Amino acid sequence: MASDPFSHPNSSSSSFILVGVPSLEAFPTCLGILFCSSYIIALVGNGLVLLVIGLDNSLREPVHWFLGMLAVTDLVMVTSVVPKMLSVFWLNSKEIGYVACFVQMFLVHSTTAEESGVLLAMAIDRYIAICHPLRYQAILTRQTVAQIGLAIVVRALLFMVPLAGMMTDLPYCRSHVVPHSYCEHMAVAKLACVDPRPNRLYSVAGSSLIVGMDMAFIAVSYGMILKTVLGKKSCWKALRTCGCHVCTMLLYYVPGIVSIYAQQFSSGVPVHAQVLLADLYLILPAVLNPVVYSIRTKQICQAVLKMLFSRKNRAWNHSQCFFQVYA
User: Is the pLDDT of residue 317 over 60?
Assistant: First the structure.
């Protein structure tokens, strides 16, 4: 048992086996193409957002810092899951070690909590910008934004560290086959030799508290925005912006809530539906957030177009110089 990094006395293996998507094992190529294309879109979209925010000195407002936080969170979230999923689908590399499994679990569930916190921070940012525009810069200083970011990370750690400790303390003496495409904590906890209900109760309570609190504050923020802009000339612009943000939040929270409770109370939901819903919950926001939050943000959209077309023009000018020299 020296190979077991957590020295579980009742464990008979130092690794878990990821099934992928149960009942859909016959379609690994199709699933791999779907998740790989989504991963590439998420990498390009979020990477482009981070690039323009880093290079363009005009993108230094609080909203841009929050967009950067969201992009980093999305990149960590999908990168912690999709590469291993692709190795399961395409390379039939289904084994994952104890340490790798629990690290993946920690990253997945901490980044989901962080994403919810960033969405709340962005809703508050929009509330201050629209309802208190003259005080916007004074309230959301660089130091305040940094403190908000730190608070988001600390909150996620306070939720995940106890859960990670509870998971690593469980003795795993049953089958080490995880009926999932990644190390989802309840799918792993069900393999323990002891009753996993304390883990389930802590997970449900913590997730419900975080999601419920964030959604309540987000709803209040957008309610105050609507109350402020109704009847004004800027009403349509504010409604369009808020509508896009609300749609993206629904795409994040609705699959998340359904996924959480489907994993906990799974009697009537097929396993493959639970797994696909959990995968959708992690990957879809990372794909859509750069489009809805960033491309529809005028300054970032202009910065992206400026960067792309300026490089294109430089390349065109260089090619013209080349032909002129050798003509």
Answer: no
